[in-house]
Design a protein that fits this description.
The structure holds 2 protein chains of 2 kinds. Chain A is mainly α. Chain A contains 8 helices and no strands. The chains are: A mainly alpha, B alpha+beta.
Chain lengths: ~180, ~270
């Protein structure tokens, strides 16, 4: 069904394109937010992605690769947002309806450390990490989608993971040190 | 809490937080914009799947390949000058002409895959100019750098110069700090970076340090120096997988740097 809609949209059918975007919109937003860590910027990136996808859709050679192609446009829109970020006042909007609370896996401190470490990652590493850990894409799929060598995708994921792991382990050390001081 | 927790569930839990729905207003306004946007037209498109060829076409294609390979073989195996027809002017020698011996300050030339350094970027904020690859996009910084953290892509204090296609995968960055102690500032910069090794170099007559580690998320290659009490940092970041953007290429860029700290306005 998606293939048929893509082919129609490639020939200028706006209704078919709107149907595709209604199907993909939530995933685009979720991925954009996870890369950019900001709702307003994620919405801007998705909007840019939708318009760019419409413009460039006739150049897509294989309609079966629509999803991966769309993620590539989205990731580049996120790169553009990260650059545009520099021109805005730094106002990070706290997410309504997404309370940050302790869960079974992550404490509030853990999440805070990860958030800070993730924001320090270069955008290309943020993108690969998100596509892998949020969408569950295999590295080969990511490489194909972003049009990068498989080794590049692997190294981006490796360094992003190492950075975030180091952040969480540093937090663990700090926690155990202060617990030790309290008990001493 | 153990220091060696399993990372996969941590990553999944971290990624699970945040919105998962696109607001209707964003979708509707995007589709409204689409309504006023023309699609690109593809005049001639190569088929994604190769069409089935008939037998005659296959034979013809094979014949063309055989003739081409044969002609190439004859060309490569034939002796050079002696094969020229009698009376014909001598063919130009294929021997390379002597090249000047590189001096101590010469920089290696970049590979054929990198665009020529025919552009120029001048940072009016920081008082520095340098040659940049043809076609790269420049985005000057909007704020002065406070020197608190190792600057990165997206920081408002950096002048960003990036490949228009690879964007966040391939970029140069220039930034500068108003007051920097030449005795300690360059070394201090590398303390917070991922550059594993440093060496002393001279750029535009000013001594500085280069740190490089292309396997690091925080490094690739970085030049740090001070001029007239002002700190400068120039960085190449490359995770594009494209060949040619290496230390030699960065040296070529550095050879064009013109430091003018007296012109800085931050």
């Amino acid at each position: 069904m998606e293939r048929a809609l893509v082919e129609l949209a490639q020939h200028g059918d706006e209704e078919a394109f709107a149907s595709l975007m209604r199907m993909a919109g939530d995933r685009l937003m979720a991925v954009a937010f996870r890369i950019l860590r900001d709702v307003d910027r994620a919405e801007d990136a998705v909007q840019g992605t939708i318009v760019a996808a419409w413009q460039d859709l006739p150049t897509l050679r294989d309609p079966d690769r629509f999803a991966g192609w769309l993620y590539r446009i989205l990731v580049h829109a996120c790169y553009a947002e990260l650059r545009r970020e520099r021109r805005r006042t730094e106002t990070v909007r706290v997410l309504p309806g997404t309370p940050i609370a302790q869960d079974d896996v992550l404490s509030v401190d853990d999440r805070d450390q990860l958030e800070r470490a993730f924001r320090r990652l270069p955008p290309d590493q943020r993108a690969v990490f998100t596509l892998h850990h949020y969408l569950g894409m295999r590295l080969s799929e990511i490489a194909e989608s972003l049009d990068i060598p498989l080794g590049t995708a692997k190294s981006r994921l490796h360094y992003a993971t190492a950075t975030l792991r180091a952040a969480i382990e540093a937090d663990d050390r700090t926690s155990s040190d202060s617990a030790g001081e309290r008990s001493a | 809490m153990s220091n060696k927790r399993e990372f996969e569930p941590i990553a999944r839990a971290f990624m699970a937080g945040g919105p998962t729905q696109l607001a209707d207003r964003v979708l509707e306004s995007s589709l409204a914009e689409v309504h006023h946007t023309r699609q690109r037209r593809v005049l001639l498109r190569a088929p994604w799947r190769t069409p089935v060829m008939n037998v005659y076409a296959k034979l013809a294609a094979a014949a063309v390949v055989v003739v081409a390979v044969g002609a190439l073989g004859v060309y490569l195996l034939s002796p050079g000058p002696s094969s020229a027809p009698v009376g014909a002017p001598p063919a130009p020698s294929a021997a390379p002409s002597p090249s000047p011996t590189p001096g101590p300050n010469a920089v290696p030339s970049s590979g054929p895959t990198t665009p020529p350094l025919s552009g120029t970027f001048t940072s009016t904020r920081y008082g520095i100019s340098l040659a940049i690859p043809d076609g790269w996009t420049t985005e000057p910084g909007t704020e002065a750098w406070d020197g608190a953290a190792f600057p990165n892509y997206g920081d408002p204090s950096v002048d960003l110069i990036h490949d228009p296609v690879r964007q966040g995968d391939l970029w140069l960055m220039v930034t500068s700090l108003q007051a920097a102690d030449p005795g300690i500032w360059p070394q201090d910069q590398f303390a917070g970076s991922g550059c594993s090794s440093t060496e002393r170099v001279t750029v535009d007559g000013i001594s500085g340090l280069i740190g490089s580690d292309f396997t690091s998320t925080d490094c690739s290659v970085v030049f740090v120096s001070t001029a007239n009490g002002r700190g400068y940092q120039i960085r190449l970041y490359d995770s594009s997988g494209l060949p040619g953007y290496d230390r030699a290429w960065f040296d070529e860029v550095l050879a064009t740097v013109d430091l003018r700290p007296e012109d800085a306005v931050d």
